[in-house]
C-alpha cells in the first residue's frame, strides 16, 4: 500500500514539473518593433498582432513569416540581431511608419 501511495505522489510530482509550458510571446521582438517604428507615436497601440493574425501565437501573418526567415533562428535574444532583421525586411512593407534609424 505504501508503494502505491509513494508511486502516486511521485507521478503527481513529475507530471506537475514536466508539464509543457504554455507558449509565450517574445516581448523583446515587440519592444524592438515599437522602438523602431512607433517611438515617435506614443499613443499608438502595437500588440502581438504585428506578427500574429489571431490569438493563436502559433500562426503568423505575412510580416511574422518574413521576419522569422530573416531572423534565421528561433528565440533570438540579441536586440541588435532582431533590429537588423526588421530593418532588412522593412522595404517589403511600405505601410510601416518610417523607422527611427
List keywords for this structure.
elongated; 48% helix; mainly alpha; 101 residues
Short description:
The chain is mainly α and 101 residues long.
Description:
The protein has 101 residues and is mainly α. It is built from four helices and no strands. It has a domain at 23-92.
Number of strands: 0
Rounded Rg:
20 Å
Distance N to C terminus: 68 Å
Overall 3D form: elongated
Uncertain runs are none
Secondary-structure topology with pairs:
Layout: H1 2-17, H2 27-37, H3 62-71, H4 79-89
Helix pairs in contact: 2-4, 3-4
